[in-house]
Amino acid sequence: MSGRGPRWGGGRGGRRDRDEPPPAVDPMARAMGLLARREHSARELARKLADGGAEADAIAATLSELGDRDLQSDQRFAELLVRSRIARGQGPIAIASELRSHGVDDANARAAVEAQTVDWAERARELCSRRFGASLGDPAGRRRCAAFLQRRGFPGALVREVLAGFSLTGESDDD
Description:
This protein has helices at 27-37, 42-51, 56-68, 74-87, 92-101, 106-115, 120-132, 139-151, 156-164. By secondary structure, it is mainly alpha-helical.
């Protein structure tokens, strides 16, 4: 046996060294592949294309063409992300913050959150009831619920309003 690598196939088996740049891929084809899986913000697409070895001018041209053909839209991305995060039980502050982290501007982030017809107080009430149930009747349970809602991105005034709706027996006053 010679010292030329693995016993079968001899060589690197199609793998590239970590120091080698990734093979060149057409930025439009890569962007279309990424968008076929899920919506992406323009900033996410630009980062992923740059990580794939695309040149800055090719990335800009690709993003421009995708926007012109309405294949990539920050507004559509924002709407989908907002619906997804509402379903996960997150509040408006956390959702807007995540949108900004994805590169969606403040105006589009605010518009996407406000466009949803969700009763944030009712949503927070449901989360508290499901998570804490009877423990909402004691002060420690109410503090835990308040901290939970604030971590989820609900505003403090809304948290106080929701907790005021629960009596000290743990029952919702709305029932």
